[in-house]
Amino acid sequence: MSLGLGLSVAAGGHAFDSVPVQGGPVLYLALEDTPRRLQTRMGKLLGGQKASAGLTLVTECPPFPQDGVEAIAGWLDRNPDARMVVIDVFAKMRGQAPAGVSAYDADYVAVGYAKRLADHYGIAVVLVHHVRKAGSEDFLTEVSGTNGIAGAADATLVLKGARGKADGILHVTGRDVDEAEYALQFQAASGAWQMLDGPASDYTVGDTRAAILKYVRANPGAKPKDMAAALPTVDVDTIRRTCSRMAADGQLTKDPGGRYYPDAQSRTQSAQEVSELSDCPATTPDQHEHPGQSALELSDLSVTDEAEGMAT
């Protein structure tokens, strides 16, 4: 998913086949991969076409505390129009925890390196990280480590497996974005993730509930007999029972007249209404005043000629 996102931003166009993105240079640190593995994955994602020249792939980089920040800053100074840096995975870059600090503070400091780069250069820095095996009602608590990781980040996105017709639900929350859920489907042939139309709830409930939710959102105040006329494959008694259960589960609300309305939580924004970051200048006054002096030029760490066309 993160590699596909990097390819989309580097080329411009649409991420997840749905979300419009502004194109620009992308640095992708694939720290657990080899050039050959990356070449194979990109071949599937791109259908044999070459990647955008705006994508720089790196398979080795020192941790943040040991010249990693300077190395990334050096690449950003050489690419002033950069849009994004993807660090896959975060554990490879965080370095050792400072001595004498709590686990929470260590996590906060580690994410802080990336946040300072993001704030200084006005770009997105995506940290790919693991989740705990044990599930939770609150997806934020599933992020591996302490709450310091989510606390330091501007936004947290957690991909979870879904029951139903979606292959995954992307849970999103953050300081500048509305909390939301998006249903995604994995395309095995291409290795790409595609965002599905409509609220995530449409893909995590049974077919009857999904059809009722869709109808009620389009026709708020509908009664079961109205739904039955539009859903000929479901009898009216089944619709009545299902609507009653959905109201009890909080998926619908019912007025005294027996009319049903979509619950506030089911009014999740569609894929065409993905929340954007709040307006902020692309370059703040303090940006680029202190260009990073890279001790390690990232171009020296880039993918070799074996993956021709993938690195710049």
Explain how this protein is built.
The protein contains 8 helices and 12 strands. Helix content is 30%, strand content 18%. α3 packs parallel to α4 (103-121) and α7 (224-230) packs across α8. The protein has 312 residues and is α/β, with parallel strands linked by helices. The chain has helices at residues 2-11, 35-46, 64-78, 103-121, 147-152, 207-218, 224-230, 236-248; strands at residues 13-15, 19-21, 26-30, 55-58, 84-88, 124-128, 155-160, 168-174, 180-187, 192-195, 252-254, 260-262.
Q: Looking across the biggest beta sheet, what order are the strands in?
A: 4-3-5-6
Report mean pLDDT, rounded to a whole number: 81
Q: Work out the helix count.
A: 8
β-strand number = 12
Helix content: 25-40%
Rg from Cα? 23 Å
Characteristics:
four-stranded antiparallel β-sheet; alpha/beta; 8 helices; 12 strands; 312 residues
Task: Describe how the helices and strands are arranged.
Elements lengths: L1 H10 L1 E3 L3 E3 L4 E5 L4 H12 L8 E4 L5 H15 L5 E5 L14 H19 L2 E5 L18 H6 L2 E6 L7 E7 L5 E8 L4 E4 L11 H12 L5 H7 L5 H13 L3 E3 L5 E3 L50
Parallel strand pairs: 3-4, 3-5, 5-6
Antiparallel strand pairs: 1-2, 7-8, 8-9, 9-10, 11-12
Helix pairs in contact: 3-4, 7-8
Summed up, what is this model?
The protein has 312 residues and is of the alpha/beta class.
